[in-house]
Design brief:
The chain is of the alpha/beta class. It has three domains: 92 residues, Rossmann fold, CATH 3.40.50.720; 227 residues, UDP-N-acetylmuramoyl-L-alanine:D-glutamate ligase; 143 residues, Mur ligase, C-terminal domain (Protein-Tyrosine Phosphatase, Chain A), CATH 3.90.190. 35% of the residues lie in helices and 19% in strands. The protein is built from 19 helices and 20 strands. The strands form three sheets. It has a nine-stranded mixed sheet, with helices on both faces. Strands 15-16-20-17-18-19 form a six-stranded mixed sheet, with helices on both faces. Strand 2, helix 2 and strand 3 form a beta-alpha-beta unit. The termini are far apart.
Length: 512
């Protein structure tokens, strides 16, 4: 007799003996296997590789481990006859194992669905589990997630950033200290898996946002429409506040089309003057006109653009992130003064418009996290006339529009990566006035050394050299962080070698 999976909506439900196959053994995959083993399920983990630590730990938690080729359906998976398969987010819809699972009509979950079903392991004083705030978008997800959690904590709530930010949601759900709010960053991959869930596995979040939408991950999803549809799922079942970007019509349409809980409000954020249900900017003041009684006639001050500038947080796309996070936090009752206090101590992560050095009249900026055109466009708008370092693995995305628009404002471009040909053609066709130099593939360290040498040879006093690749890093680097680290190290070597000219003793500056 088959198990009624819709009955499994609590940590305290009977999970014993449920046969679950877990695909992938990254940090997310292990959190899934560890949770299921604790629940008493029968667990088989399948992965193409495993670290020595995970290979040792999986049997210790009581799960089985199979390592081998997942390019086709393993016999071990068929023999196991799973009742549920939980896939790590890297498994795309077209993956042959995923296609087989769906054809066999086996329940297919992601880690977010499992986390929602068992969210009541640790409850608050009133007996209820933590509220969920969901955050997605093509860009700005991690910064907004960190901002929101920081603001909630400043407001006196126990909050944890988790999800795609690097801490599995299941680890937060199982934290014995418990939380009032989980601020969950969701990738489009995780949202796609949520799209397969029945009502029993669908989160019912307090507040949600899609920060922006631009083409990305098209190969994984198969089309721009499929990517958009996945992102739109973030708003489903929202109870209180659907926060959208007033400058991005796609996010507003997502809210308009969303199936939400009656009473949920649409809250807009933007860099202009806010309407009665918005957060925005009035004469340099970040203002809330959404969460106060007399919102048609008055507004609440959150902070000022000048204060943000003093903390290196005034780039337009960062201000948008701050406004979105403020709206999410205000929906949970955090006072403006607490939000301002949180911003006083907030610092951006490394590789997000990070000034790594100022020397010889040149400012060197690492925005290696700008892995798609939309993010790179924001960086170029923050640093008009920059020497732009661009390129890598474009993931099937066409950069012609970016080059013709914001890219055409660059004073010069240093082109790197496996997809250089496309970029060189785009500059020749759409921005022929921009000086372009090319760095051919080679040793990873030598690539960035050559990049810095070429950029320094072009840059003049007062220029900014901007690493905003608009592409993934895996063609030449281990990660976007590795790419950023190597860029910063090459800049420091250039300075140490005296190539900065009369730098007057300038030293690297990483405060931005």
């Amino acid at each position: 007799m088959s198990r009624d999976l819709d009955a499994l909506t609590s940590w305290h439900a009977d999970w014993r003996g449920l046969r679950v196959a877990v695909l992938g053994l990254s940090v997310t995959g292990f959190s899934v296997a560890d949770t299921l083993a604790e629940l008493g399920a029968e667990v088989l983990v399948l992965s193409e590789s495993a670290t020595e630590e995970y290979e040792r730990l999986v049997p210790l938690i009581g799960a089985q481990l199979w390592i081998g080729d997942l390019g086709s359906v393993p016999d071990r998976l068929v023999e196991f006859a799973p009742e549920v398969v939980i896939a790590s987010p890297g498994f795309a819809p077209a993956h042959p194992v995923i296609a087989w699972i769906r054809a066999q009509r086996i329940a297919l979950w992601g880690d977010i669905e499992l986390a929602w079903r068992v969210r009541d392991k640790v409850v608050r004083e009133d007996g209820s589990p933590a509220e969920w705030v969901l955050i997605t978008g093509t860009n700005g997800k991690t910064t907004t997630t960190q901002l929101t959690a920081t603001m909630l904590v400043a407001g006196g709530l126990r909050a944890a950033p988790c999800g795609n930010i690097g801490v599995p949601v299941l680890d937060a759900v199982r934290d014995p200290g418990g939380f009032d709010v989980l601020v969950v960053e969701l990738s489009s991959h995780q949202l796609w898996y949520l799209g397969l869930s029945t009502a029993a596995g669908q989160p019912v979040p307090w507040a949600t946002t899609c920060l922006n939408l631009a083409d990305d991950h098209l190969i994984w999803h198969g089309s721009a429409q499929a990517y958009r549809d996945a992102k739109a799922l973030v708003y489903r079942n929202t109870r209180v506040a659907c926060v959208y970007n007033k400058a991005d019509g796609a996010t507003q349409r997502m809210v308009e089309d969303a199936d939400v809980i009656e009473g949920a409000r649409a809250i807009g954020f933007g860099l202009g003057i806010p309407g009665p249900s918005d957060v925005g900017i009035v004469e340099g003041i970040l203002a809330d006109r959404a969460f106060l009684d007399d919102r048609r006639n008055t507004a609440l001050e959150i902070t000022t653009v000048a204060d943000l500038a003093a903390r290196g947080l005034d780039a337009p796309h960062i201000v948008q992130n701050i406004l979105a996070a403020s709206a999410l936090s205000r929906s949970l009752g955090v006072e403006p003064a607490a939000i301002a206090a949180a911003l006083d101590g907030f610092r951006l992560d490394a590789h997000r418009i990070e000034v790594v050095a100022r020397a010889g009249g040149i400012t060197w900026v690492d925005d290696s996290k700008a892995t798609n055109p939309h993010a790179a466009q924001s960086s170029l708008q923050a640093y008009p006339g920059a020497i732009w370092i661009v390129g890598g693995d474009l993931k099937g995305v066409d950069l012609s529009e970016l080059v013709a628009g914001a890219g055409a404002t660059a004073r010069a471009a240093v082109v790197i990566g496996v997809d250089r040909g496309h970029l060189l053609e785009a500059f020749a066709r759409h921005a022929p006035e921009v000086q372009v130099v090319e760095v051919v593939p080679g040793d990873t360290e030598e690539v960035m050394t050559r990049v810095v040498e070429l950029a320094a040879g072009i840059a003049q006093d007062g220029d900014t050299v901007l690493l905003a690749p608009a592409a993934a890093s895996f063609d030449q680097f281990a990660s976007y962080a590795d790419r950023g680290h190597r860029f910063a190290e090459a800049v420091r070597q250039w300075i140490d070698q005296g190539s900065a000219g009369d730098a007057g003793g300038s030293t690297p500056d990483a405060d931005a």
